[in-house]
From TrEMBL, chain A:
InterPro entries: F-box-like_dom_sf (IPR036047), F-box_AtFBL13-like (IPR053781), F-box_dom (IPR001810), FBD (IPR006566), LRR_dom_sf (IPR032675), LRR_FXL15/At3g58940/PEG3-like (IPR055411). Pfam families: F-box (PF00646), FBD (PF08387), LRR_At5g56370 (PF24758). This is F-box domain-containing protein. It comes from the Eukaryota. Coiled coil: none annotated. Residues 5-53 form the F-box domain. It comes from Thlaspi arvense. SUPFAM superfamilies: F-box domain, RNI-like.
TrEMBL record, chain B:
Pfam families: Skp1. The keyword Nucleus applies. Belongs to the SKP1 family. Residues 277-296 have a biased composition (Acidic residues). This is SKP1 component dimerisation domain-containing protein. Residues 117-155 form the SKP1 component dimerisation domain. Involved in ubiquitination and subsequent proteasomal degradation of target proteins. Together with CUL1, RBX1 and a F-box protein, it forms a SCF E3 ubiquitin ligase complex. The functional specificity of this complex depends on the type of F-box protein. In the SCF complex, it serves as an adapter that links the F-box protein to CUL1. Keywords: Nucleus, Ubl conjugation pathway. Its main location: nucleus. It comes from Thlaspi arvense (Field penny-cress).
Length: 416, 346
């Protein structure tokens, strides 16, 4: 046993594969010319991840595309044994018959995780995909998704991510409800969709698009929600209903730990007839992040206040105000004292981050409320969208006057 | 005696200990919560109730020698403490894996045999980082791997994925040449070898990129290949005339290697002139297991091979006629009386 013994080659194949899996597929395949023992070590790798870096760069798009196709076909032909993960992330490939063939090959080799991030094109998911009953993770980007009649769902699927997919709304809904084990769902780039989600195991939900309405019909296990809500023209695009969206949307998620909303999400929650008091308490909710909240709108402020006061374990709060609008809305006065909000306590709130504060009354009142009700508050970070130095100074002076019930609370004013 | 040890130990420290035996026979006591961090030990204790006394010491796997085991225990001792931050753990891990690659391999193996997955992952990641982006020569040097593949093995595709009788035939033909190639390789100087190796890797990838024989067709490069082929055949025909097949082939293969050296830098790109005829035909899709039959060739075998060569030449002719008959006239192989082959333009 001298210095020059070759130890790595005799490591168990499971370890070798553990090492090779951490290399790029190109580096992994290159090991086949190291020595006779390394000849086929890569060929039983169960995870294959491809992108355009697999092949030599070329200025001609077609050259890269062709060599990438040949590379992947070659690897699949040389591969032996099951393939559990196949990922192809490249904008260089859009719709090519080769992809259909690869998918057929994969569907016969026990594929469990499939990630297809193609360039924008008209790639239509081939029917063999719907026979991959072992799939646990499916991510599709830029595809047309049209399952055959017999398709009833993926019985093992835990994670589904669809980005810019051409699909009928009812297909999405039946796909979701046809995957009983689904824990993670991400839908992005969907237009004018009224979405009903029934997923009894769902824990993580990410939505991004122009949703007209969202119904969480059967999602008792949700722990994290993130929604980016866009709109065509204005708020009237949202389905008007007599139900209060805050209650409708967040009424059936008692285990929620994290809530994140962008763009018009807060506005969406604020629509509907006000029930007066929220019927639910979110005892697990620790993090709330609501961005682009329009503080001029008293209803949005109310959504914010209700969420905060019904989350006794809230630790982190991040709120950004809408950037200054060209024609600002008339600010609706909002008297917190009158509404008894200072009776509440936010017993666990530690950090607050308020960004894009423009110094309007409702914003300052909201900060005053947080300072006056959070006994363990440690840090309040404020950034302002005001460009005028004096106006900014006035705002800071005002904020510093507010009484703080937490002796440790400190203000940080950040320039951005 | 062991009971007595335990009796003294226990009240002192108020901890329970597990008895463990490494492959060299030495027995030691380890704090239970540390030892139990290894699933393999944990299973022995829980399922078999082992390790509670010296005569019931748990035998550790062969791969875990005392030095490695104490290293592993350090790792376990640190990580079994609850409440450490991710950052702390990460910093510890990074320091922990600072060791030579030999040790790293042994540690990976030992951790694997104890089913200590986090440590296997940590060390595997470290090994992957060492391999990442390196040339085969560098990797061979770092891990002391034997450079035991022949040039053509490095060039040749990885696996016979098509059950083509022609390929099987080629494998046998190629086995004949193996010995000579080895001889030639020995003569090559180190500098050239290094460059040759680099080219080989690229060719390997190029093969996968589809320029290898038969698996994936690549019409664009093909035409030019043919041109080159023609030149080569013409020249060898003129210069050497009919020649014994055996010698001729090895000559061509050899000259091919030299060529490859010159072209080493460019072979990754879409340079169509690298693979000449031998590449096209005589690159068998051989598994290394096929290479075992090479060294001695008895006369009966030789006769059989020659017959196959004949057969092979016929196949080639027909194949070429079919594949690109209109473009240019096919190259013909003719067989002379004693079973050797020569080529000429028909």
């Amino acid at each position: 046993m001298g210095e020059s013994t070759d130890i790595i080659s005799d490591l168990p194949q499971s370890i070798i594969e553990n090492i090779l899996t951490r290399l790029s597929i190109r580096d992994a395949i290159r090991t086949s010319v190291l020595s006779s023992k390394w000849r086929y070590k890569w060929s039983t790798l169960t995870d294959l991840v491809f992108d355009e870096k697999c092949v030599a760069p070329a200025s001609d798009r077609g050259v890269v595309e062709n060599s990438l196709v040949r590379f992947i076909t070659g690897v699949l032909l040389l591969h032996q044994g099951p393939i559990h993960k196949f990922q192809l992330s490249t904008s260089f490939l859009q719709c090519r018959p080769d992809i259909d063939q690869w998918l057929l090959f994969l569907s016969r080799n026990g594929i469990k995780e499939l990630v297809l991030e193609l360039g924008e094109g008209e790639f239509r998911v081939p029917s063999c995909l719907f026979r991959c009953s072992k799939l646990t993770r499916l991510e599709l980007c830029h595809c047309e998704f049209d399952p055959p009649q017999y398709f009833k769902g993926f019985s093992s699927l835990k994670s589904l991510n669809l980005h810019q997919i051409l699909v009928a709304p009812e297909v999405i809904e039946s796909l979701i409800s046809g995957c009983p084990l689904l824990e993670y769902l991400s839908l992005s780039y969907f237009d004018s969709l009224v979405l009903r989600i029934s997923a009894p195991s769902l824990m993580y939900l990410y939505l991004d698009g122009e949703f007209k309405d969202i119904f969480l019909e059967n999602t008792p296990k949700l722990v994290a929600i993130s929604v980016s809500m866009y709109m065509h023209e204005d708020v009237t695009d949202f389905e008007q209903s007599s139900d209060y969206n805050l209650v409708k949307f967040l009424g059936g998620v008692p285990l929620l730990e994290k809530l994140v909303g962008y763009i018009y999400f807060t506005k969406y929650l604020s629509i509907g007839d006000d029930p007066g008091r929220l019927p639910i308490t979110y005892i697990h909710l620790k993090t709330i992040e609501l961005y682009q909240v329009s503080f001029e709108d008293a209803n949005e402020v109310l959504v914010l206040l209700r969420l905060v006061t019904h989350s006794p374990n809230l630790k982190d709060l991040k709120v950004s105000a809408s950037p200054i609008q060209l024609f600002p809305l008339e600010e609706e006065g909002f008297d917190l004292v009158e509404r008894d909000y200072f009776e509440y306590k936010l017993p666990r709130l530690e950090t607050v981050r308020m960004t894009d504060v423009s110094g309007i009354r409702n914003e300052l009142e909201f900060i005053r409320f947080l300072l006056g009700t959070s006994p363990v508050l440690e840090t309040v970070i404020v950034t302002s969208s005001l460009s005028d130095k004096d106006a900014k100074m006035d705002m800071v002076v005002e904020l510093l006057r507010f009484p703080r019930v937490s002796p440790r609370a400190k203000f940080l004013f950040l320039q951005d | 005696m062991s009971e007595g040890d335990m009796a003294i130990m226990k009240p002192e420290t108020m901890k329970s200990y597990i008895w463990l035996q490494t492959a060299d026979g030495s027995i030691q006591q380890v704090e239970q919560e540390v030892a139990m961090f290894c699933p393999m030990i944990c299973q022995e204790v829980i399922q078999k109730g082992a390790g509670s006394s010296k005569n019931q010491a748990i035998s550790l796997p062969q791969r875990v020698n005392p030095a490695l085991f104490s290293l592993i225990l350090d790792y376990c001792r640190f990580h079994q403490v609850p409440g450490r931050s991710n950052k702390e753990r990460k910093t510890y891990d990074e320091k922990f894996i600072r060791m030579d690659t030999k040790r790293l391999c042994e540690l990976t193996s030992a951790a694997d045999s104890l089913q200590l997955k986090p440590l296997v992952d940590l060390t595997s990641r470290a090994l992957a980082r060492i391999i990442e982006g390196k040339t085969p020569e560098e990797i061979r040097e770092i891990f002391h791997l034997p450079d035991d593949l022949t040039e053509e093995e490095k060039l040749e595709p990885l696996k016979n994925t098509m059950d083509d009788p022609r390929i099987r035939l080629l494998n046998r033909l190629y086995a004949k040449k193996r010995k000579e190639l080895k001889e030639r390789e020995r003569l090559k100087n180190v500098e050239v070898e290094g460059r040759v190796d680099e080219r080989s890797v690229d060719d390997l990838l190029t093969y996968i990129n589809g320029r290898g024989p038969k698996v994936v067709k690549m019409p664009k490069g093909k035409k030019k290949k043919k041109k080159k082929k023609e030149q080569k055949i013409v020249s060898s025909d003129e210069k050497e005339g009919p020649q014994e097949f055996h010698d001729k082939e090895s000559h061509d293969l050899h000259s091919e290697e030299q060529e490859g050296v010159d072209e080493s830098g460019s072979s990754m790109r879409e340079v169509p002139n690298l693979p000449s005829m031998e590449d096209d035909i005589f690159t068998p899709e051989a598994g290394s297991e096929d290479g075992d039959m090479d060294d001695e060739i008895d006369p009966a075998m030789k006769e059989m091979l020659d017959r196959e060569v004949e057969d092979f030449a016929r196949r080639l002719n027909s194949n070429w006629v079919r594949s690109r008959g209109q473009e240019r006239r096919p190259v013909h192989f003719s067989i002379n009386g004693n079973g050797t082959t020569r080529r000429h333009i028909g």
